[in-house]
Design goal:
14 strands; kinase; about 775 residues; phosphorelay sensor kinase activity; Helix Hairpins; five-stranded antiparallel β-sheet; 25 helices; alpha+beta; five-stranded mixed β-sheet
């Protein structure tokens, strides 16, 4: 019992220690958060205290957008647009810009009439004068037409008054042609005299009239019509067809009233014509941005981050076991990147709207000014405090790098590290799929997979805003090396494939292709088949060449034997001392040898015509079983003389086929004759005939007198004989003729040799549409 009590006491002590340790950790966590909140609030107060300095800096930086070189440039060019409107109104015409500003030389009034004979002649000559005329005309019309597209925008911000100094005619967007200089914030006029010389009006108003006058002088000097069209001459000289005419007796005034300007300035800047915000000065936002507000925010952010990261705590205390700080490393990184990115837009706009009073004016519509001011300051401090506390929290999370070490921290806190094996496996799968995709099949699915993966990566990168540019560079470098490796791999596989093809082209048909060809792998079976096909063709060619040689030898032998005998017996017959009996004997031999030579030549002609298809077939109805019986009846005596025992087993069914009776008779005559010549005397000969559905099969089997050393397939070749010594009488064409005649009639003749057993099978198709009698 005492031991049990001690154990329970020890367990209680351990539990108490764990609770105490946990309380200390929670106490540390609470205390650290409290320090962070206090530090963030102090930084927020200090940062807010600088709003007055930011506002003072803004006043020094901020300039009026209308007092820029771009602004004055556009106003001067609008003078040309308004002069054309004025000219057409006064003279009741509708001249284009080129017709107005390109004055024809004396006698060249036709230059603006494309239908005139002189213009057509100039066009036909296609000289530099024509090019200069067309180029200058097109440029003036296009340039001022583009300005017309932004004129309506200019009309929103500027008042203008155009005057024809000769007639007193007026064009204006004012309700009254009278302009009170005292009420104007901006005032600028351009005056063209009777010679087209331009000057600035005596009065110029604006925030900085000197700057406005300077810009106006530069624009008048650089953007005169002569300067705009100076590149459209002939070999560096002005065209002789026209001269450039400036506006004359014309004054144009641009102005902005004080009240209108204050409205525009509250909108931060005015949207000048020409597309987008065209100005050289600072807008209100830009002025606050460059006043140091963003930089100071980043300084406070960095100080809080470093303080949380390096402020000393007891070595016994650890932040690693607190769940509050055990967030993934990527989340902390994203948090810090977001806090830094906010400096360029969100924080600057916060400072601008608080310091400039915009937020306060918005709240004053619902509450007193004092309450609105307090509310804005409170919300400002709260927003800044949250941002600064985010830096403190990020620094605290990164303290684990000091406690665990960079390697252990990445292993335990990085989500990417944890899923890296999975990502690596998937990446290798996609890479392998790219490296081994079947080029004979559609690659749409694979392409979509690659596009989606790349899209996800780019989406992640784009979420980092400005910082994403650095990641894009890294991603592009990595992608470059991946693509380089991939393309190098394809090139290497292609080299292997090309080498294999070259070996085949050079005649090496025995090589093996065992290498992995990647995307070219589907071509491997095709190339192997080509290699085998070439090898078979070569073997067939060699075999054919050998057969040609044997053919020549066999033909020479089989023709020479009877010819020699004929010549010999003719010489013997020349002997006058021969008896009548000897003479008759010699003549019988001559007749026999001549007939053999005749049969040999006829057989040679027959097989030649059959192999080339140059033979006429006369198809008639033939009872195939009866035809075989007729052949056997004709050869019955010779079969008996050869000592062969015929065993006939033909179906009693009448089988009528559409065949050439003479050629079919010759087939079975040759087959039976072959048996008589080569069958072993005293053996049985089996001839069977039967029908299977729409097929007739007739087989002939016998035992050869000599062992057959020739393959069954070769026996149907020309001049191939079963006895290699060629002692028996025959041409060696019998089986070749039989096979050719059979195939010409859509039949099939097959030989089988098994030791001394010789078997011939002929197969015929029955025309089922033809009635059987």
């Amino acid at each position: 019992m005492g031991d049990q009590r001690q154990i329970e006491t020890a367990e209680e002590n351990i539990a108490t220690e764990e609770k105490t340790a946990m309380k200390k950790k929670h106490s540390l966590s609470f205390l650290w958060i409290f320090f962070g909140v206090c530090a963030a609030c102090v930084c927020a107060l200090l940062y807010t205290a600088f709003y007055g300095s930011f506002r003072k800096g803004v006043e020094n930086l901020r300039t009026s957008p209308v007092e820029t070189e771009n602004g004055v440039t556009f106003l001067y060019q609008y003078s040309y647009l308004l002069y054309r409107d004025m000219y057409n109104k006064v003279n009741n015409t509708n001249l284009s810009y080129s017709e107005l500003f390109m004055q024809p030389a004396e006698g060249k009034e036709w230059i603006h009439d494309e239908t005139s004979q002189e213009y057509q002649e100039l066009y036909a000559e296609n000289t530099g004068e024509y090019d200069a005329l067309v180029s200058c005309s097109n440029y003036l019309n296009d340039h001022f037409s583009q300005l017309e597209s932004s004129f309506a925008q200019m009309n929103l911000y500027y008042d203008y008054l155009a005057e024809d100094l000769s007639t007193g005619e007026i064009l204006t967007n004012l309700s009254s042609p009278e302009i009170s200089l005292a009420d104007q914030y901006f005032y600028l006029s351009f005056e063209f005299d009777e010679s087209g010389n331009v000057s600035i009006g005596s009065t110029v108003k604006g925030n900085n009239a000197t700057i406005i006058r300077k810009y106006a002088n530069e624009v008048m000097r650089n953007l005169s019509l002569e300067n705009l069209t100076k590149d459209f001459g002939v070999e560096g000289q002005p065209s002789s067809l026209y001269t450039i005419s400036m506006p004359t007796n014309f004054r144009i005034t641009f102005c902005i009233a004080q009240n209108d300007w204050q409205q525009m300035w509250e909108e931060d800047y005015i949207n000048l014509p020409g597309g987008g915000y065209v100005y050289d000065g600072y807008s209100l936002y830009e002025a606050y941005r460059y006043s140091g507000s963003a930089n100071l925010y980043l300084i406070f952010l960095g100080l809080l981050f470093l303080a949380a990261l390096f402020l000393p705590v007891s070595k016994k205390e650890s932040f690693g076991s607190l769940k509050l700080y055990r967030i993934p490393a990527e989340a902390v990184l994203v948090l810090m990147v977001m806090l830094i990115s906010l400096s360029d837009v969100t924080v600057v706009e916060l400072v601008m709207n608080v310091a400039d009073g915009s937020y306060q004016k918005g709240f004053e519509a619902y509450m007193p000014a004092v309450a609105a001011r307090l509310l804005v300051l409170t919300l400002n401090l709260l927003a800044l405090g949250l941002l600064f506390f985010g830096a403190w929290y990020g620094g605290t999370c990164f303290r684990l790098v000091r406690e665990l070490g960079i390697k252990r921290y990445i292993k335990e806190r990085s989500v990417i590290y944890r899923i890296f094996p999975f990502l690596k496996t998937r990446f290798l799968e996609v890479y392998d799929a790219l490296n081994h995709f079947d080029v004979t099949k559609s690659a749409k699915k694979l392409i979509w997979k690659v596009v989606l993966i790349n899209g996800v990566i780019l989406l992640i990168i784009s979420s980092f805003w400005v910082s994403g540019l650095f990641i894009v560079v890294i991603y592009s470098v990595v992608l470059y090396f991946i693509l380089k490796k991939y393309i190098s791999g394809i090139q290497k596989k292609y080299s292997i494939l090309l080498g294999y093809i070259n070996r085949i082209a050079e005649g090496n048909l025995n090589g093996n292709m065992t290498e992995d060809l990647g995307v070219f792998e589907p071509l491997k079976p095709q190339l192997i088949r080509i290699q085998r096909g070439f090898r078979k063709a070569v073997e067939e060619g060699v075999k054919s060449q050998k057969m040609k040689s044997e053919l020549i030898t066999n033909v020479s032998h089989d023709l020479k034997t009877p010819l020699t005998a004929i010549i010999t017996y003719i010489n013997l017959l020349k002997d006058e001392n021969l008896t009548e009996e000897q003479r008759r004997e010699y003549l019988d031999t001559l007749e026999r040898k001549s007939n053999r030579l005749k049969v040999l030549i006829e057989d040679l002609f027959e097989v030649s015509k059959a192999s080339t298809g140059n033979i006429t077939l006369n198809f008639v109805k033939v009872d195939i079983m009866n035809l075989v019986k007729q052949v056997l009846f004709e050869w019955s005596d010779k079969l008996e003389e050869a000592g062969l025992d015929l065993r006939l087993n033909l179906t009693d069914e009448k089988v009528v086929l559409s065949l050439d009776s003479q050629k079919t008779y010759r087939i079975y005559e040759n087959l039976v004759g072959n048996i008589v010549k080569y069958a072993m005397p005293g053996t049985r000969v089996y001839i069977n005939g039967f029908r299977i559905d729409d097929t007739v099969v007739i087989t002939l089997k016998n035992i050869s007198a000599q062992e057959i050393h020739v393959e069954a397939k070769q026996l149907t070749e020309r001049f191939i004989r079963g006895d290699a010594s060629r002692n028996t009488e025959g041409s060696g064409l019998g089986l070749a003729i039989a096979r050719s005649f059979t195939e010409l009639q859509n039949g099939r003749l097959e030989l089988e040799v098994d030791g001394d057993l010789f078997k011939v099978t002929t197969t015929w198709k029955i025309d089922t549409k033809q009635p059987q009698d």
